[in-house]
Design a protein that fits this description.
2 domains, AAA+_ATPase, 10 helices, globular, 4-stranded antiparallel beta sheet, alpha/beta, ABC_transporter-like_CS, about 35% helix, Rossmann fold, binds adenosine-5'-triphosphate, 13 strands
Length: about 290
């Protein structure tokens, strides 16, 4: 049974004066998916998301959220929770007052106490926003996304500034929301996070998708990598390798097993110690690095 995608973007263009920030971008996010929108600085992620969230009008193209225009705020807005990079809560309000305000603004059914518990700020309920630590403020930002367990959640750099425990807690909460059917759109500069969590990734560069698909679709068109460093001067390497930094070498290969075998035999034959040896599929970090040298 096919259903309307939660987000359906067709040939979106966003321009600022004569600067073309988003170029003919098309993508869909299906119900229950975690979709990560990633990209280099200035790629057009924020411009795209602001349009999908209804904060910006497309220069051209169609954007549908739950089959409706996101500019129809009354219909769409109550169904989406948005965690911004900074929600801009008034510094004089307490945490509890801020969460109550979220409830009034979103008009979703929930209780302040439950949301405080979910974002682990119950003990800070009476504290003023101005007195929260960076990580606590981030958890309060998260409350805007989870209040009333909305069907669609936008997380903009959600874990920046969070310690590991808070990070794990945030992802546990997101997992629970997804189990209950929420759809999640994530932007992050922590590529590992996207690689581990996303069902699909849109990788933007200069206003368009450089790649779009599942993590394995994204990486399988790229060579595998072997990385190592040499403890001491060694004879000529048996394979073509690129020097990365401080004696670290990188070999790109479409024949990982064979080339790894060649390298290990060479090391054994010449009594060479390969330090910090790593071999495996290309990681998203490598894809980004390649974009940087475009
Ligand atoms: N209001 C604006 N007026 C003019 N140019 C803008 C405006 N907003 C964004 N831009 C430009 O459009 C391009 C895309 O910006 P956008 O913020 O969408 O990128 P981004 O992918 O979110 O970048 P980052 O990862 O650096 O936050 C950038 O070159 C930016 O300078």
């Amino acid at each position: 049974m096919s259903s309307t995608p939660v987000i359906d973007v067709e040939r979106l263009n966003v321009t600022y004066g004569d600067f073309h920030a988003v170029k003919d971008l098309s993508f869909r996010v299906e119900r229950g998916e975690l979709y990560a929108l990633l990209g280099t600085n200035g790629a057009g992620k924020t411009s795209t998301l602001e349009t999908v969230e209804g904060h910006r009008t497309a220069t051209s193209g169609t954007v549908r959220v739950f089959g409706q225009s996101p500019r129809d705020r009354r219909a769409v807005r109550p169904r989406m929770g948005i965690m911004l990079q900074d929600s801009g809560f008034s510094p004089d309000l307490t945490v509890k007052e801020s969460v109550r305000l979220i409830g009034q603004l979103t008009q979703r059914a929930d209780t302040v106490e439950r949301v405080l518990g979910v974002v682990n700020l119950t003990r800070k309920a009476g504290t003023k926003v101005s007195q929260l630590s960076g990580g606590e403020k981030r958890r309060l930002d998260f409350a805007t996304a989870v209040y009333g367990a909305p069907e669609l959640i936008f997380l903009d750099e959600p874990t920046t500034g969070l310690d590991i425990q808070s990070r794990d807690d945030l992802w546990d909460t997101v997992d629970k929301l997804r189990e209950d059917g929420s759809t999640v759109v994530l932007t992050t500069h922590y590529l590992e996070e996207a690689q581990q969590r996303a069902d699909r990734i849109g990788l933007m560069h200069k206003g368009a998708f450089y790649r779009e698909g599942t993590v394995s679709e994204l990486t399988q068109t790229l060579p595998s990598v072997i990385r190592f460093s040499l403890a001491a001067p060694a004879p000529a390497l048996p394979l073509e390798a690129r020097r990365e930094s401080e004696g670290t070498f990188l070999i790109e290969t479409f024949g990982l097993q064979k080339d790894l075998h060649t390298l290990l035999r060479w090391a054994q034959d010449h009594a060479v110690e390969l330090r910090r040896l790593e071999a495996g599929p290309t990681r998203l970090d490598d894809v980004f690095r390649a974009l940087g040298t475009d």
